[in-house]
Design goal:
about 325 residues, Immunoglobulin-like, 5-stranded antiparallel sheet, about 5% helix, transmembrane, membrane, Ig-like domain-containing protein, integrin binding, ICAM_VCAM_N
Length: about 325
């Protein structure tokens, strides 16, 4: 270190430093076991690094972001009690004292987390679907990492429709939405749609890859609940060319056939409960739309009071 004193310069201290160059052509690089590490976030993990016997006469060590390591002969053992980093690597190296060249090997680490939840839904649509119309299915995968290792498969019944992957390279957990456009066919009536999210972590990952499935989403609407005495209105309107006709059935009994898509019951009774089928047809084809109706009784306060007074008079 050069210092100035009364206009003169003095050499007060000599500081030595070394520059180490990485040698890409190292004949015997350190070796990690395993060569790639896959660990679930929050779990414990470990790996070993070995250097060749002649290499151990040089400077060798381990660079790490977390955990601890011990050196025993030509082996360095790295241990982590709890993985708390999403994007981390560990490097094992030795330095040739003569050439100042450094030989190093990096342990690739994949930290993963299975999804919290997987759900499927139709975008901007509720109720029955109609043949020949286009609909958008969405599969939402919540809080998963790393998303670049995620594959999502859409199913109709037991038939796989397509498999999608994300281009997102975030290492921390994210929520990702995958979309698929579908056009229902006549033979798809009543089939359920669902999706499956799987982390593809390779041979170093768990024996059974983390896999989470969604609920089943049917082309039928949820059951319609109506109280005795109230009106019931069902509508299976469809756009078709030529214009369609509508046939309604309830419990295998035909109710009506007309050009109107609306079925109206002014005051329901318990006999109106059950499955209603609307057949929409023209000279090109047809499709059935199913509605499930649940009829519940209404016990009014006056009725309960009447029974109570009758009981008192007994």
């Amino acid at each position: 270190i050069i210092q100035r004193f009364h206009g003169r310069y003095f050499l007060s201290e000599i500081t030595a430093f070394h520059v180490f160059l990485t040698d890409p052509s190292c004949a015997e690089k350190p070796e990690f076991t395993p060569s790639r590490l896959v660990v679930k976030y929050g779990d414990a993990t470990s790996a070993k690094c070995s250097v060749c016997e002649p290499c151990s006469k040089n400077i060798y060590n381990l660079e790490r972001a977390l955990g601890s390591h011990t050196i025993n002969g030509t082996t360095i053992v790295w241990k982590v009690e709890k993985m708390t980093e999403w994007d981390t690597n560990t490097m094992c190296y030795f330095t040739n004292d003569t050439t100042n060249h450094q030989c190093c090997t990096t342990l690739l680490i994949t930290v993963y987390k299975p999804p919290d939840r997987v759900s499927i839904s139709f975008l901007n649509h509720t109720g029955p679907m109609f043949m020949g119309h286009d609909y958008a299915l969405q599969c939402e995968v919540q809080n998963v990492a790393p998303v670049e290792k995620l594959s999502v498969t859409f199913y109709r019944g037991q038939t796989a429709l397509t498999q999608l992957q994300s281009n997102n390279t975030h290492k921390k957990p994210v929520t990702e939405i995958f979309s698929l456009s579908i056009t229902p066919r006549k033979e798809d009536n009543g089939l359920q749609y669902w999706c499956e999210a799987k982390l593809e972590l390779g041979p170093e990952g768990p024996e059974l890859p983390p896999l989470v499935t969604s609920q089943r989403s049917s082309s039928h609407p949820d059951p319609i609940t109506v109280t005795v005495g109230n009106p019931l209105q069902l509508n299976c309107s469809a756009a078709a060319n030529p214009g369609p006709s509508y046939s309604w059935m309830h419990s295998s009994h035909r109710l009506s056939t007309s050009l109107q898509s609306l079925l109206y019951i002014k005051s329901v009774t318990s006999e109106n409960e059950g499955q209603y089928i609307c057949m929409v047809s023209n000279n090109v084809g047809y499709i059935n739309v199913t509605f499930n109706v649940v009829v519940k009784s209404e016990f009014k306060l006056q009725t309960i009071l009447c029974f109570f007074l009758l009981y008192l008079n007994l």
